[in-house]
Amino acid sequence: MSFDKESKCKVIETMQAIYRNGQILEMELRFSDRKEEAEEVWRKNTRLSTEIDVLIGKTMDEWLGEAATVVKRLDKASGQLQDSIDEIGAAINTTQKAIKVVGAFDDAFNTAMKVMKLL
Amino acid sequence: MYSSLYLRSRVFRLSLWLVCITLICVLASGCAAKIKTDPFKAYADANRKLQDSADDSLKIAYDWSVSSYSRRVQTSKDAIMGLMLMPDENDPFGWKAPEKKSALPLKVASFRGGVNRLNSSLVQYADLLMQLASDEIISSKQFEQMAGDLNSGVKGAFSSIGQSPGDSKVALFSAAAMTAAQQYLESKRKSHLIEVLRSNQKEVESAAGLGKEAARILAAVMRQEYNDESAELARKASVEPLLKLDERYVAQLQILRALHDAYDQLPVAHQQLSSSLESESSQLGQIQALYENALRIQHLCADLKKTK
Q1: pLDDT tens for residues B263-290?
Q2: Is B138 on the interface with A (CB under 8 A)?
Q3: If 0-12 CB within 10 Å is exposed, 13-18 middle and 19+ buried, where does residue B88 land?
Q4: What is the rounded average pLDDT for all residues in chain A?
Q5: Does the pLDDT value for residue B27 go beyond 50?
Q6: What count of other Cβ atoms lies within 10 Å of the Cβ of residue A42?
Q7: Res B171 pLDDT > 90
Q8: Bigger pLDDT: B198 or B157?
Q9: Interface contact flag, B227 A20, Cβ < 8 Å
Q10: What span, in angstroms and rounded, lies between the C-alpha atoms of B272 and B282?
Q11: Which contiguous run of DSSP H or E holds residue B237?
């Protein structure tokens, strides 16, 4: 039987409610001077507490596994964003280079004219 | 003579070709509206605040689980065994909690690291969004400099072919070409942003879902510790410490509820970034709400630390 995220949290919360009711019963027994019964309830409840700890720990482990996948996808998205930023930077560089080429026309033309005269 | 005329006509044709390309750029880009950077900056700030506030909440959960576990260790052998770390065969620098007996504080510590890693990725993503949306990537100064360079370059090119179009005409041409280039890049940047926001909406939703789940798991940790500590105080009939504990527990649940709500706001705020690109006015509503909620969590955490 598999549980989805919502159900897992709900199971823990339900177990904790049962555990809490056990503690309330234990207190009522103690306050009514029924110590032996109170101790018995406490013993059984302690086992439930350990189980809840284990379940919380497992839920955290599963969460960490899922988070690692989402982190990978988010990092990939960040990588793509960085590519976009670099692309815009490259476009600016290209524009700057194109302007330098226009500036070089003059020099190129003069050089070509000198070569023509030599021929 | 023929060669010289041929060269002149080639250069002139090349210049015309450049003008045509510039015009095509203008027509292709249209008049790209300027990207509003405020929402992106606010979103990045909100993500950073969310990371800090989540870590503050986790620190509180960790501290409580440590103090509660210390009490449990005094009465339970299993609790002591849970603190004996084991080596990790696959990692020379790794460690493992003992199976089935692992101590909850160790789990909380590792969980805190995981939540922090998730939030770091969200912050990094938000920072890069801000960088792409920022004016600094295409600075006006840079384009003014380029317009100046183009100005002298075009003048030189015209004079090479024995023509003088006049300073004002050249300046007009250079300014128009640079405006066109700037608008073209602005439009390209905007389309990149729209695509990134659209394609990553699901990832942000997944991350936010995990954040909400983390808040709920932490609430279970807090409840577990509260149940044990309050029962212990009730057995001793320590009324005043019990009252203080109740107050602290309620405050911690309030923090976790706010954290849960903040993660709930995250995808809506991310969605609002897309809307801000298409709208004339800056829409900061949801992003601002996320920032304020994260700030509120930090204040609640600070208040809780003071009452300790």
Answers
A1: 999 999 999 999 888 876 666 888 999 9
A2: yes
A3: exposed
A4: 85
A5: no
A6: 18
A7: no
A8: B198
A9: yes
A10: 10
A11: none
**Measured between alpha carbons, how far is B13 from B19 in angstroms, rounded to an integer?**
10
ipTM over 0.95: no
Q: Which two tokens stand for residue B176?
A: 């128009």
Q: Which two tokens stand for residue A86?
A: 């670099």
Overall size of chain A counted in residues: 119
- Most A CBs within 10 A among B141, B223, B242, B253, hence the mutation to make, goes to B223
Residue B96, strand partner residues = B86
Q: What is the DSSP letter of B135?
A: G
Chain B contact for A91, CB < 8 A?
yes
Does the model's pTM come out above 0.80? Answer: no
Consecutive H or E run containing B168: helix B167-235
Look-up of token digits 């006049």: B166
CA distances in angstroms from B216 to B2, B9, B85, B140, B209, listed in the order given: 85, 75, 27, 48, 11
- Helix ranges (H only) for chain B are 2-29, 38-73, 77-81, 104-133, 140-160, 167-235, 239-278, 285-307
Which residues 26-55 of A are in CB contact (within 8 Å) with B?
Answer: 26-27, 30, 49-50, 52-54
* Paired tokens of B287: 């992003």
- pLDDT above 70 covers what percent of chain B? 73
Exposed, middle or buried by CB within 10 Å (0-12, 13-18, 19+), for B134? middle
